Amino acid sequence: MQRNRGTIGQKTPVWTCARIRTNKSRRQGNHIVESTSQTDRTVPSNKPDDIIRDNEKGTCVLIDVAMSGDGYVIKKETEKILKYKDLTTEIQRMWSVKTEVIPVIIGATGTISKSFRKYASNIPGKHEVKELQKTAILGTAHILRKVLM
Q1: Is 79 helix (H, G, I), strand (E, B) or coil?
Q2: Is 12 contained in some domain?
């Protein structure tokens, strides 16, 4: 379940696992959001933002999203890949699927790395890089407006 990150009286959505159904098949895969991955061995970093498991293709994708300073986008991307290396190995061993870590890192002013488009193309669904950059810039502008006014 998701942790309550707001105030005590505030309700948060209580869901962690929603089935992906394109052919009305329940065995197709899982989309797990912000949930601790249960593993046989202790893994220090076992909570990526999204885990998408496709049983038909035999793949599993660990997605971790972050926003950083513009100068640290590539460094942050490398950190995310190394952070989930143990979890990737453990999931491959337990579930017998090919596992990949996809870091989605955008700088505060919309800066992306050279490999960002390659990573974004591996995420299921339709994603526009321009829209993601626009969202990052608007978020930064919102924070600046709150601080400066």
Answers
A1: helix
A2: no
Strands 17-19 and 50-54: unpaired
Question: Domain residues for 127?
Answer: 17-148
Q: What is the pLDDT along the chain (149 residues), one digit of tens a residue?
A: 334 444 444 443 333 333 333 333 445 667 766 566 667 777 787 788 888 888 888 999 999 999 999 999 999 999 999 999 999 998 899 889 999 999 999 999 999 999 999 999 988 888 899 999 999 999 999 999 999 98
pTM tops 0.85, yes or no: no
| Angle subtended at Cα 98 by Cα 95 and Cα 103, rounded to the nearest 5 degrees | 110
8 in any annotated domain: no
What lies within 8 Å, CB to CB, of 103 at 6+ separation is 64, 66, 76, 77, 80, 81, 119
Helix (H) / strand (E) element for 63: namely strand 59-68
Provide the number of structural domains found in the chain: 1
Is residue 23 one of the residues assigned to a domain? Answer: yes
Does residue 1 form part of some domain? no
